[in-house]
Amino acid sequence: MHPVNGLHHVTALASGARGHDAFFRDRLGLRRVKVTVNFDAPDVYHLYYGTGDGQPGSVWTAFPFPRAARGARGVGEASETAFAVPPGALPFWKDRLGGREEERMGERRLAFEGPDGESLALVETADPREPVAGPVPPGAAIRGFHSVTLRLRDIRPTADLLGLMGYREEGREGTLTRMRIAGNGADVVDLIGDPEGPPARQSAGSVHHVAFSVPDRTAQDALRRALAGAGFRPTPPIDRDYFEAIYFRSPGGVLFEVATDPPGFARDETPDALGTALRLPRQHAHLRPMLARALEPLDGVRMEEAA
Q1: What's the gap between Cα 115 and its chain centre?
Q2: Separation between Cα atoms, residue 192 and residue 178, nearest integer Å
């Protein structure tokens, strides 16, 4: 059993920063916890939203590429991201978002789309985590992630991989197999087998990668050795400023990341100021004047040199 805590974050592609920011802050009530840029494409934002100080297991992140075309759902992708809300909260969210009420594995849920067609859901569950403090009443507010759903031609190799990471099969419902790891939320991965489905086309509205949480580099190194021993090819650890990350491609084609919980998002901002200034990786600090002019302005974000 390797010390995976469950989900850490989910990263998507988007078509514009302002619309994405408004939806996840104002409509879903998540807190913007970090404004930075893509390490590999610094002219593109990397935006982070979550609960509290950006607790692992709650953080939705986005690369908003201006005017990106919309992606297409299919096999070989994380086809849905679900957030946990308290029992009885769905009527509030139905009035707020619309969407489609349904049931999965005995849980009531509301499926809806984000601004770029992201497949999202809210699941009623007794979750012990603290709610987001924001525009949504505490009795209905999001507690963090509930699960991700992977749509795959063949679920078995990915189920075996998740087993290596500490997940266990909890049950089946039609073409769906639920995998769960011991935790306090953000601990479910649903696998849907779809042998004849069309391949996903990744662009705006698509999940770019799914990140799993580990407590520290020691745990990450142990899992990395186990993955390499099983024939995967994880990258060396990469410093992402707010966590250390390794990446590898899962058997079904979904990009997986394993991220450490520390140092967290308060390493370069005070907790009460999270998400209020553009923070740049050291190697891109010299680009601030250009980026301050080129990046789409966001409400409440200071673009000049941060204090």
Answers
A1: 16
A2: 9
pLDDT tens digits in sequence order for the chain, 307 residues long: 568 999 999 999 999 999 999 999 999 999 999 999 999 999 999 999 999 999 999 999 999 999 999 999 999 999 999 999 999 999 999 999 999 999 999 999 999 999 999 999 999 999 999 988 889 999 999 999 999 999 999 999 999 999 999 999 999 999 999 999 988 799 999 999 999 999 999 999 999 999 999 999 999 999 999 999 999 999 999 999 999 999 999 999 999 999 999 999 999 999 999 999 999 999 999 999 999 999 999 999 999 875 4
Phi then psi for residue 14, to 5 deg, are -140, 170
Give the DSSP letter string of 163-206. Answer: HHTT-EEEEEETTEEEEE-SSSSS-EEEEEE-TTPPBPB-SBTS
Domains and CATH numbers, the chain: 6-267 (3.10.180.10)
Overall pTM > 0.85: yes
Task: Using alpha carbons, list the distances in angstroms from residue 139 to 20, 187, 198.
Answer: 24, 22, 40
- Tell me how many degrees the CA angle 139-141-145 measures, rounded to the nearest 5: 130
